[in-house]
Amino acid sequence: MFGDFFAKSSSTSVVRQAEPLGFDPSLWQVSAATGLPGMGAGPDAGGATLPQLVVVAEQVGRHIAPLPAIEHLVATRALGAGWDDVFDGSAIATLAVREPVSPGIWKLVPAGAVADVVIGPHEGATVAMRSTPPGSAPRNHACAPIADRTIVGGQRTELGSTAIWNRALVEWKVLTAAALTGLAERALEIGVQYTKTREQFGRPIGAFQSIQHGLADLPGMVAGSRLLAHKAAWALENPEGVPQVFDVFDNEVWDGEILATMALLFAGDVAAEVTERALHYHGGAGFAEEYDIQLYYRRARGWPLILGDPGRTALGLADQLFGVAGTLAEEEN
Q: What are the start-end ranges of the H helices in the chain?
């Protein structure tokens, strides 16, 4: 259903018109009619499960839809009851994915330029701050509506301990991984289609083995990215059904939080690789604004950076999987 909806409502012309802010208010209003903003309410309140939201997020990424669906869905899952304007989409909610780095400021909040409510950590609690969004964003590769948001000066609601924010952040990783998977899949289709129509030496360039080899291994990478995102969502939604096994060397990882980080990192790498090859096979045309592949190429690099340097995220994951390097050295001594 959402594939059909975004195919009709979020064409690449809509994406271009929404730049540089990266938000289309009319598309958000139309999406509200589908029930999208309230899907984070959960099954008991008529919403969706996390695995179902992964399917929706993949379609958001496939069509690089200029609306804050990922952040809003995660935020609604954290807010709970009593936020009717958020659940019906008349107000936009988002999640600050970083700890405050300066007094009273959440830096580079995804959808922070357009969100009315921001959820984030502050002074040992998870809080929701309602205030007027700035409506503008700093320039960024993905044309995403990121912005710094203040933790003071608005209407503050304390939601509970920081465990609420930690859980929301994990779910944001999963849904972002799914969006990157959808982005990669569509970029691959664009690349393959171009190699079938672009001719050189009297033949479509896709007839040459070097290009065929460059494209042949990408579907498996996209499929792996999808499976990892779904596995993370399943593990988080069904913790009682997760096998009590953890052996990274035997590829037996079932912890939902670890899987979420793995999914985000892998999906980011896959999206970057797929869009790089697809753009490369476009030749110089790939860099031209009138070609769609550059829209995907830029977002494949911008979306993973919302959380920060992926290298630091990978180092943190390595510590979780293998132990902190300093600790291991001390044990060996």
A: 2-9, 12-18, 25-33, 50-62, 69-79, 84-87, 162-197, 209-216, 218-237, 256-281, 293-302, 310-322, 325-332
